[in-house]
Structure formats: structure tokens, C-alpha cells
């Protein structure tokens, strides 16, 4: 494994993905569009919600608009990062295989891809969280940002896994949009969660822990250590699975 | 792709394939292909559409796995697939650099020879002036030239070419054959897969594929 080859692959995979106009357009438009929808559709009348991952599930009073902004930001992060990870995994698969045939090591390409996804997760998580800060004032800013970054990590790893399993982009996007929409956009939101008949299933979904990190940090002083650890475990499982599948497919 | 090539005499085979089988679902494409390639020869494989020509080449190059059979290669291989499998949003220069890294040609001790070889290949295929262009924006013929150049960057001893001149213009087609002649004189081996081989007289041996088996023609 050579560092210069990893660095060069990282740089060119970055260029390969960010030279596409659609990528830049999505990065700019999706968070802004999601936030605008949340601003104009949610109420400002305070309501009571339960914090699912805090001890004894305490009840707090929040504005649905503030809550909606947090969740819509999380959904934007999850969707965008997983879409980009899917692209990084799926695009130019035969060219990648040829590169390996010519002497690049699979582990070098894997490392370059992994580092790129992590970079995107961090940059995008911070970017979308900062956009949201113009609209709400969270209690603990760092925790909110951490939740966004973790959401990016879990969904980025999910995107890599989907990209490794599915060869076609359309099916991949469908899987991403479906899960991101059902999970963060719908089930994790306390407005639905509070009245849900089966919270256990909701807690198993990938968006649960990262969204808890952001919500707890935004509105309370409770500890976020456990949801952070669970988010990291969840994302790492997706990541390891995707890397194993990718490695197996590229064996020559 | 790169194996030890020293201490091999001209008569020793540099590629040996024995009893190679490949199926796609129920469709049995290759049914026991065997061949031997020696140094300094030009070989051809021809056959009808869907006969398995590309399958043979992809398996020999290691791009696909055979279901059964043995393949032994004792030299540096250059593989030019039918489709130019390159990175669509990278420039020509970036693609060349990336594959140069793959071949290990970025190391200091190779840099002078590598630059010289790149210059020679660009001249041979009349390719200069395209370095900064994005690959997806190139014409089919120019893409194919780059496909060929990338397979030749590391000065391979054995070239596996899948329909290499299908999109080339007449001038480049002639340049290709002149260059192939020079490679042959240098002791390099070339295996060309083509739908129709117009240039039979240039070949030392031609196989056809019939019912999944190689037949001398």
C-alpha cells in the first residue's frame, strides 16, 4: 500500500465526482429547499415531545418548526451523503477494475474512497448544520453538528453498501430515498414517534441515533454519549460490509 | 498482470491457456479453449457476433474469471478492452497519470523513460493536443486511441487487443499496423480479437471460434 497512490486516487475520485454539475447543484439546492419547506409548513405553537434516548424518556416543550428544521437538515445530510457515496461506489466500475488489473491495489482504492466519503461527511454535515443555525438557536451547537456528521457517516456508509450491492444508479437512488425518507424524514420525527405503536422498530433504523444526538443537543442538557457510540457502531457495520463486498467484486 | 519475464527463450510460450470454460447462466460460451502464444508473433481471433471472442480476451487478461481451466502468463501484459474503460469525468492527462500510477511508472527512476514513451505513443497515434480534454467529450476514435495508449504505457511484452481499430480513421489504422509491425520486430506478442480480420496476411496465426472451441483457420 503506497501513500502517494492513495493520495492521487483520492484526488482524482474527488475530481471525477465533483466535476458533475448535478453534484454541485444538489449540494446547493437540496438543503436550502428542504429548509424552506420546513419553514413554510411547520407550526410555531409549542408542543410536548418525548426524548427517546434520554433516561426515563423526559418530556420537553419545543416549537414544531425548530424540531422540523433539525429533522429536515438531518434528512438533507443523510440523503446527500448517501447519494454521493453511492456515486463514488458505482461510477466507472469497469475502469476501476481495469485500474486494479494494471497494478493498483484494491485496498489503495478502498482507502481513497473511504477517506473521500469521510471528508464529504464532515464537510457536508457542518455545512448543513451551519445553514440551519441561521434559523434556530440550539442549546449545544457542537452536539447538533455532531448529530449531522454522524447522520452523514451512517447514511454515507449505507450509500457505499447500496453502491457495492446494486450495479444500477436508479435502483440505488430508490433505496436511498426510500430509507432516508421513511427513517429520518418520517419515523424518527417525534411528532410521529410519540404516538407510534412500535418504537422498537423505529429505534433499529439507521437515523435513530444520529437524530437523537442532534435533538438532545438542540433542546436539552442530557448526555449524548450513548447515541454517539451507537451511531458509530451502526455506520461502521455498513462500512465494513460495503468494503467486503467491494473487495470481493474486484478480485481479479 | 505483471509477471517475471526474464530467462524465457523465444520459443517458450509466454501465455498458455488450457481447457478454459466459461458460461453465462445456461449459455455455455467457451467449452475448453486451449492456446499457446510465443514471443514476436501476431495472433488473431475471429468469429461471429456472440461467439465468445471478447470473453476469451477478457479471461486471458484477468478481467473476468474462467469457470474452469488454467491460464499461465510469464510476461508483462497490456490489455485494451473493446469499450474504453476509462474515467469519464477526468481529463486525458489525468487518466494517463492515474494508469501510470497503477503501472508504477510514477517512480522517479522511471519518469524519464515514461515521459519519452508517452511522447512516442502520442506521436505514433497522432494524439497530441488532447491532454486537457475531458474523456467523455472526446470523439469515439480519440477515445479508442487513448484506450490503446493506456494499454501500451508500460511497454508490455504481450498485448491483448479487443477490436482495437474499430473506431479509428484510416490514417490511424495504418499507423496502428505500422506500430504493431515494429512491436513484433522488438519481440513483442500481439493477440487481436476482431469481428472481421481484413489483415490476414499480417497475422502469424488466426483462430476462429466455433461452438465455444478455438479452431485454426
What's the SSE blueprint?
The complex is a heterodimer of chains A (252) and B (217).
Chain A: H1 3-18, H2 21-41, E1 47-50, E2 59-62, H3 64-90, H4 93-101, H5 106-133, H6 141-165, H7 169-187, H8 190-193, H9 199-204, H10 208-219, H11 225-249
Antiparallel strand pairs in A: 1-2
Helix pairs in contact in A: 1-5, 2-3, 2-5, 3-5, 3-6, 3-7, 3-10, 5-6, 6-7, 6-10, 6-11, 10-11
Chain B: E1 13-24, E2 27-38, E3 42-46, H1 53-61, E4 68-73, E5 77-80, H2 92-103, H3 108-124, H4 140-152, E6 158-162, H5 170-185, E7 189-194, E8 205-210, E9 213-216
Parallel strand pairs in B: 3-7, 3-8, 5-6, 6-7
Antiparallel strand pairs in B: 1-2, 1-4, 8-9
Task: Write up what this structure looks like.
The complex is a heterodimer of chains A (252) and B (217). Chain A is mainly α and 252 residues long. Chain A has one domain (3-249). Chain A contains eleven helices and two strands. Chain A has helices at residues 3-18, 21-41, 64-90, 93-101, 106-133, 141-165, 169-187, 190-193, 199-204, 208-219, 225-249, and strands at residues 47-50, 59-62. A two-stranded antiparallel sheet of chain A has the order 1-2. In chain A, helix 3 packs antiparallel against helix 10 (208-219) and helix 6 packs parallel to helix 11 (225-249). The longest helix of chain A is centred in the middle third of the chain and has 28 residues, at 106-133. Chain A is elongated and about 60 Å long. The mean pLDDT of chain A is 89. By secondary structure, chain B is of the alpha/beta class. Chain B has one domain: P-loop containing nucleotide triphosphate hydrolases (Rossmann fold). Chain B is 31% helix and 28% strand. Chain B has a six-stranded mixed β-sheet, sandwiched between helices. Chain B has a three-stranded antiparallel β-sheet with strand order 2-1-4, covered by helices on one side. In chain B, a hairpin with a 2-residue loop joins strand 1 and strand 2. Chain B starts with 12 loop residues before the first strand and ends with a strand. Classes of the chains: A mainly alpha (252), B alpha/beta (217). The A-B interface holds A 4-5, 8-9, 12, 15-17, 19-20, 91-92, 94-95, 97-104, 252 and B 1-2, 61-63, 65, 79, 81, 83, 85-90, 94, 97-99, 101-104, 106, 134, 154.
